[in-house]
Design goal:
- This protein is α/β, with parallel strands linked by helices and 275 residues long.
- 30% of the residues lie in helices and 20% in strands.
- β6, α7 and β7 form a beta-alpha-beta unit.
Length: 275
């Protein structure tokens, strides 16, 4: 049975994970086995539990204990459930955006990207995308539109960043993801070489005059394709584009030069899905 703990102020050290620790401190990159992430809302927490994530504590408004969070509390077992009035909890930065329920969870063991690529036909590669909203949205599109795995270069935003998890609507727990290399020096080489060794052709999404349109029949015909997406604003590095097998663009109209990377990813995933 859960331990229901009434809080009257936000200074309790047990609330540090929700209030005072930065994303970097939660992640605990040097000791990932000690890392924590925050999941928000019963739906997202439920998906995390279904996919094997370990809950450590819950924080919620008192009215949700017997309401919309009751099933989550039951599934989480004997963990602390911190609760208080809405007015008190509103002192947590961004708490009112959390739909009333937060869960601190142990970070899962990191996956190896080579394992995720075994048997995959379509993977997305995110290069230096640092905006958590974009990472979350791309992961949601990848899960919905037939991408088998998401690979991230080491300097990408953490997919278990609180905002990324929220924007992904929990799909970050459903689609496999991994970092492609441990440091920035492993991308684009030897990262692209390792993808090729696993049978992937690479498609760089970039605004180039010599790029092929996204509906080029050769792209859809590829048995295994890695779709490479670049950071907001500057796009992919020139060295990455040069190393890829294709440079691909989404044709624009009405003088619009490009789409946001999250929107572009959805178009690319749908058009280039495995047939």
């Amino acid at each position: 049975m859960a331990q229901i703990i009434e809080i009257t102020d936000l200074s309790r050290p047990e609330l540090d994970v929700y209030l005072r620790l930065t994303e970097a401190q939660l992640r605990c990159r040097l000791e990932p086995e000690k890392g924590i992430f925050i999941a928000e809302s019963p739906t997202v927490i439920g998906l995390a539990l279904e996919n094997g994530c370990q809950p450590l504590s819950l924080l919620m408004e008192r009215r949700f204990i017997e309401g919309k969070a009751s099933e989550i509390i039951r599934r989480c077992g004997e963990i602390p459930v911190y609760t208080g009035e809405r007015e008190l909890l509103a002192g947590l930065t961004g708490y009112e955006l959390s739909r009333g329920v937060l869960c601190a969870m142990r970070r899962p063991q990191p996956a190896r990207f080579e394992a995720l690529c075994t048997g995959a036909r379509r993977v997305a590669v995110l290069e230096s995308i640092v905006d958590a909203t974009n990472v979350g949205a791309i992961i949601r599109s990848a899960a919905a539109l037939g991408i088998d795995a998401v690979l991230l270069t080491p300097n990408c935003c953490d997919p278990l960043n609180r905002r990324a998890v929220r924007v992904s609507m929990g799909t970050v727990f459903q689609i496999p993801w991994a970092y492609i290399g441990q440091n920035a020096g492993e991308w684009p080489r030897p990262g692209i070489d390792r993808l090729r060794e696993m049978g992937f052709r690479t498609a760089a999404m970039a605004l180039r005059e010599d790029a092929v349109p996204i509906d080029d029949s050769r792209l859809a015909a590829e048995e295994k394709l890695a779709i490479v997406l670049g950071t907001e604003g500057t796009g992919l590095a020139r060295t990455t584009i040069a190393d890829c097998d294709y440079t691909v663009r989404i044709p624009m109209q009405h003088g619009v030069d490009s789409l946001n990377v999250a929107a572009a990813s959805a178009v690319a995933f749908w058009q280039l899905r495995a047939r």
